[in-house]
Request: fold
Amino acid sequence: MKGMNDMGLNVRNVSAHLVMAGAVFMGGEGVVMGQALEEAVSGKPAAEIAETAAEQTLSVDEIYMGGRARAVEVVLNASRSASPFFRANAMEAAAYTGDRALPLLQLGLDDRSEVVRFAALVSIGKLADPALGKSAAAYVNDSDPSVRAAAIFAAKKCGAEVNESYLAELLNSKDARQRRNAASVLGWLGNKSAVPMLREGSWKGRMRNPNEYEIDQIAFAEAIARLGEETALDVIRGKLYTGGAPDETRVYAVTVLGDLGDAKMARVFENMLNDTNMQVRIAAATTLTKLGYGVGGTVLLDASHYDGERVEMDIKSYLSQHKNREDNETYRRLLASDKALAELAGQIRGQAAFGLAMVGNAGAAQRVVAMLDDEMEQARLSAAAAMLKALTGQGVK
Reply:
């Protein structure tokens, strides 16, 4: 049987870019109690850690401190994975691993995969540690254009002097991934003078690759909005209403609007909690949680238990209701592979973990900790990243 990657499916990871910043956000008493729990459960399975937490009256932070050692272990294991996808995700989570962060990110910089190097550099940039500026600047002439863009971002954020002009060139690339990565970097750098060329670059994307244009528009609009142009939000909002749009586009739009704090669309997000597609429901629930609305927890908890059988049932129901959507063939191919269904179920559980980690109650926290021993690596790694980030008080962005 073929897996999802072998089938060429393009299902976007909702947690594609974690924001790397902040220190541990808890009082001294909470740290002491959490450390005591961590020592009490050291070396135990995640499910037993969650059960131990449930037997005690513990805060969310204390529950997460109890699972912290296991979460770091999950990230370390992923950093040595044969899959560049998991190694890249480990680089995104690395900033929350305390004294493990710098060695992990250096490992990522030396990785043979450009995807992993890119993720490591983005994390370094968001850490903004001056000690890493020289290491980041060394990659501004990397063989991969996206890695070069990430190196410019990381070096600048860490205080190193590098030439940013290559980013403007990359906005005109024929490669959609490279265009979007360059746009993201320009948005993160915060230079408002980049707005005109981002607008122009977004328009050119339609001429080069019409099939990628919807995703291009969201990526460029996100960058423009980060630079203070709130009118760009309307471009992303419009993708929520596009009839027949692939679910990937809607998930991406909802996620980005959550990252940008767009509370004006809260009612729309709430309606999407009843969408026929679970990934859309998760994106809406996570965004609502991020915005401070307590209405998505049930969806997220349900999704954290998803399995291949439920994925199969949902796909069949979806296809019966949407016979002419352009993403239907992708879903039909999924039905032909038990392995692909299991992988997608694991991805769905992983996506749910990011929202659950922000819910802020003990039940959700216990479920996130239990997921550190999920059968699928994607779910384990997402739970670890979400939990470690929650311990910094940052939530998931």
Observations:
- The mean pLDDT is 84.
- The chain has one domain: 28-391.
- Residues 338-359 form the longest helix (22 residues).
